[in-house]
Amino acid sequence: MIQPTGTQSAIVRACIRLLRPLARIMLRHGLSTYDFARVANFAFVQAAGDILREQGKPLSFSRISTITGLHRHVVSDIVNSEAGKAADLTAEKDYQRNRLARVLAGWFEDPSYTDTEGRPRVLPIEGPEPSFETLVRAFSGDIYPAIILDELQRVGAVRQLKDGSLRVVSRRYTLGGADPAAIEHLGSATRDVLCTLEHNMSAPTESRLFEDSVVTATLDRASIPLFRLLLRQRGAAFLEDIEGWVSEHEKPDSKDPVRAGVIVQMIVDDRQEEAGPAPDLRRS
Length: 284
Fold this sequence. Notes:
Elements: H1 6-28, H2 33-54, H3 61-68, H4 72-80, H5 82-85, H6 90-109, H7 132-139, H8 145-154, E1 158-160, E2 166-168, H9 180-202, H10 224-249
Antiparallel strand pairs: 1-2
Helix pairs in contact: 2-3, 3-4, 6-7
């Protein structure tokens, strides 16, 4: 019998806490534990590949099978499946969202697109500056104006008026609902948080990434609207400063590019979930 270590038990308890919200999402959308097990198998095969590459070892079905505990034929089916071969679109999606944020920032800040009182102008879709077309060309890089407009309207940041012109109604936006873009964002944002925590578990102190939080268990519920407003204002201002810094240090032709950024997230937890004791992992 193999007795799990204290570290393994702590990891199991942590996994229960982080998986519980995911389980709620999957159950609400008709997915079962069987579906989750299939997803977990994919993830473990991909993670085993990551670890083997980190160790400088060649990838093989046998090595992955040994690390994951999955049968070699299961590993082979996963690696050769269309889902296993699918390209990771995270970087592309992040690139597009970043350009959306820059278009909105330009609309609110650039003198060419604001009136004498500093408010964003109502813009025609096409035409000479100032128009939505020239705004997008100036701030979105190589993404077509029609793609930017569709996305900004979808997230409720821009409204089209009766005469066809466009009014911006939000400087920043939050993906929500259960449409494909919001679900992709769920995976991307959660992955980023976990990757930072994973890195900090093994990295020396001087190489750890910044990760901090301010959380209370006794906040007056009536303060939530004010808290939300505070973060919308100060959080947005902070992220706009970061966007400016990032834009100054981007090098599209860099030979060693890296994906990097910051997440600011408000927490409201009504459930106060605790994992409780770890399940018995002993096996013969």
